[in-house]
Amino acid sequence: MKTLKSVTALATVLAWALPAAAADDELLVFDWSGYEEEGFYQGYIAQHGEPPSFAFFGDDDEAFQKLVSGFRADVGHPCSQMVEKYRDADLIEPWDMGRIDAAEDLDDRFMDSEIFVDDGDVYFIPADWGATAIAYNTEEVGADEVQTLQVFTDPKYAGRISLPDNTDDIWALALLATGVSDWTSVTDAEFDAAAAWLRAAHPNVRAYWQDGAELGQLMSSGEVLISWAWNETPTVLEAEGHPIAFEREAEEGSSTWFCGYVNLKDGPGSEDKAHDFINAWLAQGSADYIVNEWGYGHGNAAAMAEIPQETLVEVGLGPVDAPLLPQVPMDQELRNRMLEEFERIKAGF
User: Fold this and answer.
1) Are 162 and 135 in contact (CB under 8 A)?
2) 243-253 b/e (C-beta count within 10 Å ≥ 16 → b)
3) Alpha-carbon distance 151 to 197, whole Å?
């Protein structure tokens, strides 16, 4: 495996601290911080001589609220469970798949929903995917202790854990911890049990992290010993020499997620360049980059097939022998309920 760049986390922090740098003013991409790295779309730069312009958001709910409030961009990057909200709010339109070079190579696992592909219209192009599981400091935490998700409620680690400050990952954890690995059919009793578990974990939380860079700083400093983390964080920290490992086979399981690009309606820029951007993203070079530099998977199945299995295992994308909760589209009423309940829990109620 190619050594991960030690500057990845720092670059992400700086991207948050500085305004988005203007580049090609005919394409504005509304994206997660960090995805402006040029390794993702080298073909676009080769074709147009400069990168697109970027604007950033911190999480899916923030991005959606900004768009429904009138912010205009050409391309957006939501995760799977948000696409239905984008469609219901009339924010997106189908891609012209005849102009997408790798249309036949998209991973079927991430297209199998009428929310994404409706009567032949494709509203969502999968770009990136990964795992959320336990990252832990191997010098301070025994491997036996992270064989269960109940480690997050262990008073031994009060003030030394960090949990994600986003609806989907936090509820994936709570549901798994209480015996649920499918969130498409959550009962009221299961919801209440997961909420109670989050309340039990809350007093142990040092910080709710919002992005991988923030969590990386908390764990590299030793301030946080255990976290529910995207596989990017342990992959980067381990490559930098920090004693951080990733446990995806806790007894109750772990989660997987996937995100992709949508074609925003009435974008201010060029529709041609929006499709050029997607073509660049779906190239083999982008797949190599996201796996080797970030530890995430790619939406182009043919490109992923070219990456050695041992590399995928090393970055936390290999097969696991434990329950998996896939973060597929869920009922939006349930998700809104989760969002509201999590805000109450964080506020101490």
Assistant:
1) no
2) ebbbbbebebb
3) 12
- Residue 11 CA: distances (Å) to CA of 202, 227, 277, 292, 312: 30, 22, 22, 16, 24
Contacts of residue 330, Cβ cutoff 8 Å, sequence gap at least 6? 81, 183, 184
User: What confidence score (pLDDT) does residue 12 get?
Assistant: 38
pLDDT at 225: 98
List beta partners, residue 300. 106
Is there a contact between 312 and 318 (Cβ–Cβ < 8 Å)? yes
Comparing CA positions, the residue from 230, 60, 253, 32 lying closest to residue 131 is 230
Name beta bridge partners: 297: 129
> What pTM, to 2 d.p., does this model score?
0.88
CB 81 within 8 A of CB 328: yes
Q: What is the pLDDT of residues 185-234, one digit of tens each?
A: 999 999 999 999 999 999 999 999 988 889 999 999 999 999 999 998 99
Q: What pLDDT sits at residue 158?
A: 97
CB atoms under 10 Å from CB of 255, counted, come to: 25
Q: Which of 46, 2, 50, 5 is nearest to 29 (CA)?
A: 50
Name the pLDDT band for 316 (thresholds 50, 70, 90).
confident
Number of neighbouring beta carbons within 10 Å of residue 241 = 9
Mean pLDDT to the nearest integer, 17-38: 80
Q: Which amino acid is at 263?
A: N
Q: For 94-145, where are the E strands, in sequence order? A: 117-118, 121-122, 125-137
Classify residue 300 by its DSSP letter: B
